[in-house]
Structures are given as C-alpha cells and as structure tokens.
Specification:
- With 218 residues, this protein is α/β, with parallel strands linked by helices.
- The protein has 7 helices and 8 strands; from the N terminus they run αββαβαβββαβαβαα.
- The protein has a 6-stranded mixed sheet, sandwiched between helices. It has a two-stranded antiparallel sheet with strand order 1-2.
- Helix 2 crosses helix 3.
- The protein is globular.
- The chain starts with a helix and ends with a helix.
- Orotidine-5'-monophosphate binds next to strand 2, strand 6 and helix 4.
- The site of orotidine-5'-monophosphate has 15 residues, from strand 2, strand 6 and helix 4.
Length: 218
C-alpha cells in the first residue's frame, strides 16, 4: 500500500479519529467503523494529516490554485493543507464558508480569499452519500469559482442506493461534475491495512460484511 495511505490510517487510529464499534451514520446506516476528523485536535496531529493530504494530491497530480474548506470540519483541514503547502514552498490562497449568513460587519457566507476566477480544490473529511460535498460545490459555483477537484481524507466507498447501483457516492460526484475526487485512503485501503495484522481480524470481518451490504462494486 502507498506510504501516505498507511501513514494516514496509523495517524487516524492513534488520534482516535478512526474507531471500530457501532455507529449510526447521517444516512441512518449502522456502521462498524467511524472516521471523526475532529479528533485530529492538536497541531502535530493536523500537521501530520496535512502532509498526508499533500502526498495524496501529489500522487494524483491535481491542478488548482485555491483551497476551500467547507464548514465546519473542512476548515482546519484546508488550513493544515495550506500550511503544509507553504512549508513545501507554495503559498496558496485559502477560503471557507460559515453555516449562518452574517448580516453585520463584512457580511456574507464566505471568509478568506475571493473565489471568483479561481480553480478551487475542496478539502473535506469524508464522503458517504455525497450530500456535504454537493453543498460545497453549489457554494463555490455561486461565488464565481470553478471547482477543480475534491480531496477527502476517507472515501467510505458506499453506494447511495445499493439496490439500484453499486457505484460509490464519490464516483457519482466525480462523474456528474466531471471532477477528480481523491481520497487519502478508502475503505478498500482500510481492509488491506486491517488484513496485515491479526489484531484487527474481528473488525475486518465486520468491515467486509458492511461492504457487502452497502459498498460499491469490488
Ligand atoms: P455525506 O454527506 O453523506 O457524504 O456524509 C459525510 C458526512 O457524514 C461527514 O461530513 C460527517 O458529518 C459524517 N460522517 C463522518 O464524519 N464520518 C464517517 O465515518 C461517516 C459519516 C456519516 O455520517 O456518513
């Protein structure tokens, strides 16, 4: 497995951002694992995560000129990635949205660098059904930006309606919007990772059963 994928899964487990158990998702599905990007809650943890995003982007050769972090969880993620790019010698503009429009002061829904005329990379945590990402796509379009790609930490590779189609939500977003969608790691990577150590054998069985029920085509 490529280096940044393993590094990310190890970091996520260490930070308790990736947990095994029983979790009810936004979709109502009960999942044997959950990724909570909010647990990357220290400078060092976010710096490590920022480097994983940058390596994944480099591996896929994405081209963009602004980073956008959707509120709330995307905000520190895009910031960590922006700091990592600066460390690597590229100073990129950054922007975020707020969830509530502000009527006073500077007003509006957007904070940071203007999006108009920019090729925007959306930086977010996880795609399950793709709802959160679609909201970000609409916001950026309204602000005059062009979305050049999406990078997420974890692609859960779930089909929205497995009875209809086994295409994953991330693949559907990529096709519908003609956009590259890059993940640091996917459920397949997590399965490969858990397969490397007997310590995770029970969790792996549950992941496999979950993928059989909701996952995209293998
Ligand atoms: P979609 O909008 O369905 O793609 O789900 C993405 C959102 O689900 C994330 O932004 C989280 O709010 C939440 N989520 C996680 O954070 N981690 C997971 O492992 C799974 C979910 C989820 O509820 O599907």
């Amino acid at each position: 497995m490529t280096d940044h994928r393993t590094r990310f899964l190890q970091l996520a487990l260490k930070a308790n951002a990736l947990r095994f158990g029983e979790f009810t998702l936004k979709s109502g599905r009960v999942s044997p694992y959950f990724f909570n990007a909010g647990r990357f809650d220290s400078g060092a943890a976010l710096a490590g995560l920022g480097a994983c995003y940058a390596d994944a982007i480099q591996a896929h050769g994405l081209d963009f000129d602004l980073l956008f972090g959707p509120a709330y969880k995307g905000i520190p993620l895009a910031t960590a990635l922006g700091c990592e790019y600066a460390r690597r010698g590229r100073d990129l503009p950054l922007a975020f949205n707020r969830k509530e429009a502000k009527a006073h002061g500077e007003g509006g829904m957007l904070i940071g660098a203007p999006l108009a005329g920019r090729r925007v990379l959306i930086v977010d945590d996880v795609i399950t059904a793709g709802t959160a990402i679609r909201e970000a796509l609409a916001l950026i379009g309204e602000a005059g930006g062009t979305v050049a790609g999406i990078v997420i930490a974890l692609d859960r590779q779930e089909a929205v309606d497995p009875a209809q189609s086994r295409r994953s939500a991330a693949e559907t977003v990529a096709i519908e919007h003609s956009l590259p969608v890059v993940a640091i790691a996917t459920l397949d990577d997590l399965l490969a990772f858990t397969g490397e150590s007997a310590e995770f054998s029970t969790q792996r069985e549950r992941l496999l059963a979950y993928r059989a029920a909701y996952g995209r085509d293998a």
